[in-house]
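dumping this here before i forget
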Amino acid sequence: MSVAALRWTGDALELLDQRLLPDQVAYVTCRTAAEVAGAIRDMVVRGAPAIGCAAAFGIALDPAASSYDILAKSRPTAVNLFWALERMRKAKDKRAEAEAIFAEDLAVNRALGAHGAKLIPQGARVLTYCNTGALATAGHGTALGVIRSARDKGISVFACETRPYLQGARLTAWECLQEGIACTLIADNMAGYLMQRKEIDLVIVGADRIAANGDTANKIGTYMLAVLARHHGLPFYVAAPRSTFDAKIADGSSIPIEERPADEMTGYRGRRWAPEGIAVRNPAFDVTPAELITAIICEKGIVEAPSRERLQPLMSTSV
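structure:
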């Protein structure tokens, strides 16, 4: 990607304002941990790996003890945030550690992509969800990184729009157009129809937290796609770095699920379409049970039919 989600200048963190895409490319400059936390909370930067990288740079900017709590409260579901903060807490050289986390994430994503590309057949029609590309990471991406790594196989992408925040419509579609990856945008509720018509060959998504037994939290609507994929006999893959694995969470029932503001459901960018006074639920994530996941792809390889026993050697114990 010619446009980077995060730019570190040494005394500031510049974050691509993903709220403005695809209409405008603009950066928000953060000089304190509180400003980074605000940018994470307000969705200037999003995507579990990118959130972790941003938090690390937040500590590099402002290593006071209070900064860790401020950043930890910015978003609760993505475990990469807490993994990065723990690494920063232990590091003596905060700036060097933040730069290392960023560089490692890029290398991890490329390794993950190479492993995942082996699972993508020639000419496959791949359904993906939310945004898991360079915008959600230090670069290359997780699920979309697998697609990038398999692009020479002549594959094509169906990108779900990803209600209510439209990360697929605004971000994944934009990334694919930037790189010339064949992409068709669909509404979330069209996936079952296309599967029924045998127009989709597999599903690949990212993750914000993977429990010890393989249950996976990802953007709300992922569970629905996993159920549809199982019914239609399609592979359902999860692509995520090991920093997303959380050994301290036994199963999906213990994963904290963030509730986002109601106005993300009732309208967008100042335009309201729902009636005033309507009650709203807006969980940002759901949990897909491990038994619906064909395989989990990480930088160390592929774990088929994920279970507690199969994932145990890969589990992070740092959070």
